[in-house]
Amino acid sequence: MKMTREQRYRRIEQAEPGEIGKLEALISACPWRQHYHIQPITGLLNDPNGFSYYQEYYHLFYQWFPLGTEHGMKYWYHTRSTDLVHWEEVGIGIQPGDTYDSHGAYSGSAIEKDGQLNLLYTGNTRDEDWIRHSYQCLAIMDESGSITKVHQPVISEVPSGYTEHFRDPKVWQQGDTYYCVIGAQRVDETGCTVLYRSSDLRNWTFLGEIHTGLPNFGYMWECPDYMEMQGKGVLIFSPQGIESQGDEYQNIFQSGYLIGEPLDLQTRHFEHGSFQELDRGFDFYAPQTMQAPDGRRILVGWMGLPDLEYPTDKSGWAHCLTIPRQLSLREGKLIQQPVSEMVKLRGNSEGTHMEFTLDHENRSFADFAGMAYELECEIRDLDAGVVGIELRASAEEKTVLQYDRLSQKVILDRSQSGATLAEQNGNVRHCTLNADVLKFHIFVDSSSVEIFVNDGEEVFTSRIFPSKDSTEIRFFAHGGKAGFQASKWDY
Ligand code: FRU
């Protein structure tokens, strides 16, 4: 049953007696709880926030509505890790409900200054007429881990020319100066990103819009993130309101990037190539990056999308975060690879390895199966027309990953993956890949797959909701032969 607005905008302490216990009981009986992904303890998780490294820990917060699976009163929930793969649940990071975040502590980012971690976030408020007012707020985490809000917002006005859809500050430092990008909507209801500057993180100067070659690209740009890598500037954002076009923009909302010359901070001109989607799967949105102490640029995304119902809603929780990915640039494209620390999750560290040829057939192997594992598969000597793998398979269910040599497309089909969702947006996703050898690096969990294709050239991230018994892995080559090499590690 849908919650009323009043129910959605409650804080934890306003829960009915027994309400949270009921959610917890539903959740503990849910077959789709993940094994190694960050997921909400109760209720709904959305964007990753405040992804940073401070005091020997990676910190990763997420947008959280504790009391249900709809979007309501948002908190920041705090997790931390020393290795990017084992995450500890710390507890509430930012609690909403004060004057400037009365209706939610919305997305934002973190940066260390003077030995403290500064959390810059959007305070979402609604007035008596339910009109939105946005503030950019600051909270400070000290060495002991305690987080205190700064009482006054650090940006309290939306500049003229923009609507109250003005949120998600992402901060970075260049020399002695701090900059932040904010996702915005112009009064003509087109999306864009604006830029601010500060010398102390408290007083911010509005510099103006980032001038891109996309003046009319959707009605709102959420969660912008700007970084420089390998001498280039990269602007990641999540535009809303883009029509699907061939294989592109198939999900309800998109997430992608522009690569160009480093942003000119004086003129705010950004010379860039075309918008490219970050992920080809069904469930990916609002990613955020951070720079690790060793210089790697690491991205985590929300493995979900707004405005859709998911099969776990009935079990009192929704969504999870993706595994962390290391970014690099190759030939005008962002390459995404699982972070090397993922090997720490390998239970049987030697793994199981196989080499075989398939000729017009499907094949599975005893004990080469599972529900939470890492699978590497290389397919070469392609003579077959279609080759691929069925994951989480049984007599009734399968999630099919395949390469069609004729159309040169990688295809992910979740039409038979188990419980269905968002079918209005289709059950199949494709992308073009021109390759003689295919490499699939796959991370399967109870209710998700993350598939890295040809060393991170493409990624397909998707939730799937199979039954617990669907654990087979089947390889296939149709219309000819192909050579397979597969390795699997249990998680
Ligand atoms: C993106 C988003 C952000 C906002 C947050 C609220 O998913 O809509 O723009 O800050 O979620 O939870």
Q: What would your notes on this structure say?
A:
It is found in: Cytoplasm. Pathway: Glycan biosynthesis; sucrose metabolism. InterPro entries: ConA-like_dom_sf (IPR013320), GH32_Enzymes (IPR051214), Glyco_hydro_32 (IPR001362), Glyco_hydro_32_AS (IPR018053), Glyco_hydro_32_C (IPR013189), Glyco_hydro_32_N (IPR013148), Glyco_hydro_beta-prop_sf (IPR023296), Suc6P_hydrolase (IPR006232). The chain has helices spanning 5-8, 19-28; strands spanning 43-54, 57-65, 75-81, 88-94, 105-113, 116-126, 132-141, 147-149, 162-174, 177-186, 191-198, 204-209, 220-229, 232-240, 256-260, 276-277, 285-291, 297-302, 317-318, 325-330, 333-338, 352-363, 373-380, 386-393, 399-404, 409-413, 428-432, 438-445, 448-453, 458-463, 472-490. With 491 residues, the chain is an all-beta fold. The protein has two domains: 5-341, Glycosyl hydrolase domain, family 43 (Tachylectin-2, Chain A, 5 Propeller), CATH 2.115.10.20; 347-490, Exo-inulinase, domain 1 (Jelly Rolls), CATH 2.60.120.560. The strands form six sheets. Strands 22, 23, 24, 25, 26, 27, 28, 29, 30 and 31 form a ten-stranded antiparallel sheet that branches. It has a five-stranded mixed sheet with strand order 4-3-2-1-19, with no helix packed on it. Strands 5-6-7-8 form a four-stranded antiparallel sheet, with no helix packed on it. The longest helix has 10 residues, at 19-28. The two termini are 35 Å apart. Residues 46-47, 63, 74, 106-107, 122, 167-168, 222-223, 285-286, 306 line the site of beta-D-fructofuranose.
